[in-house]
Amino acid sequence: MIKQTLLGLAVVVAPALAFAHSKSAATTPADGATVTEVPPLSLRFDAPMRIISVTLTSPNGDVEIERETGMDPATEFRALPSEELPPGSYRFDWRGMASDGHPMQGSFSFTVTE
Question: What is the pLDDT of residues 21-72, one digit of tens each?
Fold first, then answer.
């Protein structure tokens, strides 16, 4: 009976673990937010993520950003724009490697107003 229960549990749990990728839990600014001042850009994950590349894009092209977080896996990634962002719409795209080895990517957008 115990053997059958453990086998049944393994059948249910194993597939769930196979699909348990890291997820972006929150961003700063929040996706779709309108801000007057830009805080440090951040991504928070439910499990460590190694962020491989990031891009901040404005209507005029890419904006230079400086990483505060290195290349080691972390549950929070932070970066700062190299200069003050003028009013407009921005998109932050990221690519990373989840702790389970799967490539991940995502984005969030925000608007800066005066």
Answer: 566 679 999 999 999 999 999 999 999 999 999 999 998 999 999 999 999 9
b/e per residue 51-86 (b: at least 16 CB within 10 A): beebebeeeeeebebeeebeeebbeebbbebeeebe
Long-range Cβ contact pairs of 76-83 (< 8 A, separation 24 or more): 76/42, 76/43, 76/44, 76/45, 77/42, 77/43, 77/45, 77/49, 77/51, 78/40, 78/41, 78/42, 79/40, 79/41, 79/42, 79/54, 80/40, 80/41, 81/38, 81/41, 81/56
